[in-house]
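ESCALATION

Customer reports they have been waiting on this structure for their group meeting. Please prioritize. Original submission:
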Amino acid sequence: MSYSPPSPPQELPDDIVETLDTHSPEVLRHIARYAEALAEHREREARLAEQDEEEQIEQRPEDLPDDVPSKATITIKEINDNRYYYWQWREGEKVRSKYKGPVSPDD
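Update from on-call: job pushed to the front of the queue and completed.
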């Protein structure tokens, strides 16, 4: 075992390294356990989000056009006193729409 302190990973921000340097070995061990648990939690959340996306893709409506993402929802727009269905989804900051068809009088 070396008598010199370990070198922090380059990916670790300097402010975190400086903060860690001020704590006792006991607190550092608590931090290490917490950081490991937090990393596992975030990885699990990312896996669940990915599974949700995959399930949404599998549940793609049959009438959804190929050029419309599965996350799109149906919106009703009124134009000149007529109502129309549109597929609508977000791409970054923009909201995209694609015509689906007229709203029937029964709806």
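Sent to customer with the following note: Residues 69 and 107 are 25 Å apart (CA to CA).
Escalation resolved.
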